[in-house]
Amino acid sequence: MATDRRKFIKQTAGTMLAGIALTDFVNAENSKIISSNGMKIESDDEKFWSMVRQQFPLTKDVAYLNNGTMGPSPYPVIEAVRKGMMDCDQLGSYGGWEATQKKIGAFVGANEDEIALTHNVTDGINIACWGLPLKKGDEVIITTHEHVGNAFPWLNRQKLDGIVLRTFTPASTAAETLNRISALINKKTRAIAVPHIPCTQGQVLPAKEISTLGKGKGLFVFIDGAHGPGQLMLNLHDIGCDVYASCCHKWMLGPKGTGFLYVRKDFQDTLQTYFVGGGSDNAKWNMATNPVQMGEYASSAHRYYGGTQNIGLYRGVDAAIDFIENIGLQNIHDRIKMLGGYTQQKMLEFGDKVELITPTEEQSRCAVNGFRIKGMEFTKFNTLASENKIRIRSVAENGLNSLRVSTHIYNTKSEIDKLMELIKKV
Description:
By secondary structure, the protein is α/β, with parallel strands linked by helices. It has a domain at 99-325: 3-Layer(aba) Sandwich (Aspartate Aminotransferase, domain 2), CATH 3.40.640.10. Helix content is 41%, strand content 13%. It has 13 helices and 13 strands. It has a seven-stranded mixed β-sheet, sandwiched between helices. Helix 3 runs antiparallel to helix 10, helix 4 (99-108) packs parallel to helix 10 (311-327) and helix 11 packs parallel to helix 13.
């Protein structure tokens, strides 16, 4: 029995070491930095983008066309998460995640003290929704194309506080979309809360013009930016909104469970914080006084989050931003917009057999497209696509009953062609 036990331990240890060695080899081999060296990379330079594709652990036999739900992380991000966790667990180190605020701020055109770390977009939306000074009867403008993460918090506040939601459907042009918002504004309107890019069909809404319209009317302007960073050339100061919530796990290709909330510096005393903890304060609270002394909120967006964060995940966010910047955000934007345009072109070739529901207007489109197939139930086709190793998304939100395809830098025209061949068959 003792001999068997020693044999088992030896075999198990050997297997574990082999696994670790293989993992280290894979990471070392695939974590080599891909860089454009600051040069413009053509959107159809398949040799370069093929090298980029090799940075992702995606299986080669599946066409993953659903980045709008979850963006796979490249090997350098995965390795940064692992190393961050190992550093913490080996040394018992604490903190350091605050440094990511500065990196995110620079990436999205904001200041470090305007960035709060969150776990996802929904965290940020709830902070914004409940923090705005709204009362019963106040109206908030929202779209008919909302993700549950931006719909349900506002619906919940309507239920509990009696605010009123007024909706519009995005139009086929940015100008008409702006007109529809303007038509809803009245003396009871207090806020505009819309997605930068609706999850349903990927239309790029004119966020800067919406912000200008809202601020000109004295309204609060909140943008659900789940699909903005990493897909668009983004400058939040230029957009001019009060609050912008986003995540790092979609187009930024970062770790899952990471996100951020931008709150304009001079708006932080207006947007009330409720969920507070270590870091949300100015360190002047005191429970030993009578009465106890609260002190003040942190003089930055750190007031909107507190407590221990996962240093490994935020090291991964840092690595994701580095990965994007090494390739060049403009190069990435050009590539994915080209793939989005190619998708539209191919769908339009089907004529009235396929309904493209994403605008073709240049400023209103990028990497995400929504569509319906005439005579084909949307969930049935989504299942068929999955069976044919094509990953897309069905869109049941608000009765849209459509499909969505979203492409990123790891995708190719041949993968889009594979989807088109399946559409052609049905």
